[in-house]
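INFO batch 0412 | record 1 of 1 | parsing
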Amino acid sequence: MASIGIFFPFTESDTEFVKQTTTTNDEIRSSLTHLLLTNKGERYYKPDFGTNLRNFIFNPNDNTTYDAMKEEVKTAVTKYFPQLQITDIIINIDPNNERKANLQIKYINNGSIFGKQDTINITI
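INFO prediction complete | emitting tokens
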């Protein structure tokens, strides 16, 4: 099967140097994860690529912070993945480490014939 891109985060493969994506859905999930975990200013020639989610690590665990985090995700996704429609963002704080958050991002791929819904989870 032909590869489309590279899985993110990078993982080893038995047959390739790094595991590669072979479906459009896998490529979108990998690219979306890459976007959300990249800090703005971290990528040469694209200083606006990414999010500032890590800047929220020491903010209070309240709705104001959660709303700002959700807006950060929506803004980045709208700019770099206009075919995706965010349907829900759920933020869960780790009870053992309040400085660690898991974001569950649900989206619909409007670029797909069937408008496939999918979910990714990222931890910051």
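INFO post-check: The CA atoms of residues 60 and 66 lie 9 Å apart.
INFO record closed
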